[in-house]
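Render DUF4276 family protein in 3D.
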Amino acid sequence: MRSVTIAIEDQLSEVLLSRVIAEFSPQLVVGLSIGRKGNGHLRNRLPNLVSAAQAGMPVIMLTDSDGPEAPDVVRSQWMKGLTYESSRFHLAVAVQEVEAWLLADELAVAHMLGKKCRAIPVPTDTIESPKEWLLTQALKSARRIKEQLVREEHGRLKIGEGYNALAARAVSEVWSPARARANSFSLDQFMREMLTW
């Protein structure tokens, strides 16, 4: 087994990336997880992480595109001017937000919301704001779930205190990368890229 460091924006990114690695790259084991401080923090750490990867510590970084840009476009913007070996460093990009990968498995979404929700648009990478779409669906959940998942602040939907815990549980217990990849082109692309690791 080969140890790999993962660099992530938040808890949901961490559990999704760990699950994909565990199921589709069994030769890898997550040794260290860093980040959980958002996109800007990852971008600032990028040169150091690339250097660490080149020095022998393989790194997989997962970020959101925060827009409709394809993973290759975001990757070329972030990696401009950096030299790296693709077998030691990989930048995975979830189009729009990482919630698009979660939404790509409707069984996991139903588990998280405590109910089957209306048809999820596919591919999920085309949902303009996957997190907001999920929070809107959470408003229709049972009160105990709704109160954990979503809150309103100045007329806008925000994640509730239990959002990360419920999302992480749905990913660990139900979410299937094999099912989800059929509904998210950025997840499918990442999983195909992982075959070379």
